[in-house]
Amino acid sequence: MIIAVIGIPVALFSLWILSGWLPTRDIAMPHYSVIEKRVDYEIRRYDPYIVAETLQTGGNKEALSSGFNELFQYISGSNVGQAKIPMTAPVLQEPPAEGQKIPMTAPVLKQGEGESSTIAFVMPPGSRLEELPRPKSPAVRLRVVPPHTVAVMTFSGYAGQDTIREKSSALLEALKRDGVPVTSGPRTALYNPPWTPPFMRRNEVMVEVESVSPDHL
């Protein structure tokens, strides 16, 4: 009886950990180089990559959920040719620049201002825009993200709206302290499926900064 009482929770806990680890153990991510590591953040230089993105309305959680579903349908075959596209990481969330309008037609990526957000999946490394299948949904578009430099703060646990706001503020304060010029609003990178145990989650807040070299940091 004692073995069963102890063994069942241990087995369930192990399955929980395994279910969070397996989907991301070999998942592809955009390539970047770390320019410098600091106590509060690191500076990265990303190579160009392609995202599939969609504009959604609603609160933070609702927009992320509906946008994720829209884009998951695209990579699952809701495209011209019904091609399957491998899932990658991370899902990114980013507020648009002031006054910027993102069309419904034409990284995961989430841009939000007020009650609208752009959610995007990063396409697999080596993807070419002209070779990716065209989305069937007019709400999904493909876009090339050019090379860019970002400052990144990494954290674990659940990336709720309050936590994201707190980490974004902390990153911006650290950059202000260090005199690093910021060129975008904060975005959030989510690397794990929603069922992943909080202590195994990798989340990041990042902002674009002026291109720098280690000698100038």
Task: Please characterize this protein's 3D structure.
The longest helix has 20 residues, at about 1-20. Helix content is about 25%, strand content about 25%. It is of the alpha+beta class and about 220 residues long.
Characteristic key phrases:
about 220 residues; Multidrug-efflux Transporter 1 Regulator Bmrr, Chain A; 2 domains; ten-stranded mixed β-sheet; 3 helices
Q: Give the tally of β-strands.
A: 10
> For the terminal residues, how far apart are their CA atoms?
61 Å
- The domain tally reads 2
Strand coverage percent: 25-35%
- N-to-C series of helices and strands: HEEEHEEEEEHEE
Name the overall outline: globular
For the largest beta sheet, what order do the strands appear in spatially?
A: 1-2-8-10-9-4-5-6-3-7
The number of helical runs is 3
Show unreliable segments.
96-107
Which percent range fits the helix content?
Answer: 10-25%
Oligomer: single chain
Q: Mean pLDDT across all residues, rounded?
A: 82
The largest sheet, given as strand count, sense and whether it forms a barrel, is:
10 strands, mixed
Rg on CA atoms, Å: 19 Å
**Structural class assignment:** alpha+beta
Please outline the helices and strands.
Layout: H1 2-21, E1 32-37, E2 42-46, E3 49-57, H2 60-75, E4 91-93, E5 109-113, E6 116-122, E7 140-145, E8 148-155, H3 161-178, E9 187-190, E10 203-208
Parallel strand pairs: 4-5
Antiparallel strand pairs: 1-2, 2-8, 3-6, 3-7, 4-9, 5-6, 8-10, 9-10
In brief, what are we looking at here?
With about 220 residues, the chain is of the alpha+beta class. It is about 25% helix and about 25% strand.
